[in-house]
Amino acid sequence: EQAERIAIDGPAGAGKSTVGERLARCLGYLYIDTGAMYRALTWLALQRGLDPHDGEALGRLAREASIVIGYPHIDDGRQYTVTVNGEDVTWAIRSPEVTRTVSLVSSHPEVRRVLIEAQRALARAGRVVMVGRDIGAVVLPDAELKIYLTASLEERGRRRYAELLERLGHDHPALPSFEEVLADIRRRDEIDRDNMQPAPDAIVIETDHLSVAQVLERICHMRGKR
Ligand code: C5P
């Protein structure tokens, strides 16, 4: 099992990052959140004033930019540190502006080609839990274990809102309303749909009524049965 790769896919708010990070920690594997790579590129594109519709320019930016996910211990609630050309953008890539724009940036084949290549390189050595939308179907079609997490739109909205509330606090000016969070997830689902098919051999886990511990338990169970 030295080279095991675990793919976890699903829509926004299905619990991928929480489950993926915990699973990786418990196995001693590398946790790679591919959404952070798309977000980092989006952040840079916004900084540079690029048109998010311009796939060619964005593809070029993706090739030139240095997007790095690292794991220094910084105790401010982060799972990892993302840098773009050396700048720490770990929290900046969670801004409403990036969240609004990331699906459009990610929809360009020129962008996906570059980031998928980088993701495959990160997973080459194995012992990784890779989280995203298309990991099992496209990035690592021969992954040893593929999980597809889902939950209803309402439940995903509740989770995402609770997360923002926890991080920003009640009276933070950037805290969106629950309705805004829901609308954003709905809109991203729509745009992400093409890149969000579960792999035919993925195990689908509907998480609406499951705790994180219960989801982990099921994944470990499936892993044991292989
Ligand atoms: O997972 P997260 O919400 O951070 O992902 C942000 C966006 O990045 C997604 O809504 C999607 O548009 C894009 N993405 C993608 N393929 C992935 C991961 C993320 O297109 N593998």
UniProtKB/TrEMBL annotation:
Q: Which reaction does it catalyse?
A: dCMP + ATP = dCDP + ADP; CMP + ATP = CDP + ADP
EC number(s) per UniProt? 2.7.4.25
Mention one GO biological process in which this protein takes part, according to its record: pyrimidine nucleotide metabolic process
Kindly give the InterPro entries that the UniProt entry links to this protein: Cytidylate_kin (IPR003136), Cytidylate_kinase_dom (IPR011994), P-loop_NTPase (IPR027417)
CC per GO annotation: cytoplasm
Cytidylate kinase domain ranges (all copies): 6-221
Name where it's found: Cytoplasm
Keyword field contains DNA-binding: no
State whether keyword Lyase applies. Answer: no
Keyword field: ATP-binding, Cytoplasm, Kinase, Nucleotide-binding, Transferase
Q: Give the matching Pfam families.
A: Cytidylate_kin
Q: Which domain of life is it from?
A: Bacteria
Q: Which residues bind ATP?
A: 10-18
Molecular function as annotated in GO:
ATP binding; CMP kinase activity; dCMP kinase activity
What family classification does the UniProt entry report for this protein?
Answer: Belongs to the cytidylate kinase family. Type 1 subfamily.
Name of the protein in question:
Cytidylate kinase
Lineage of producing organism:
Bacteria, Bacillati, Chloroflexota, Ktedonobacteria, Thermogemmatisporales
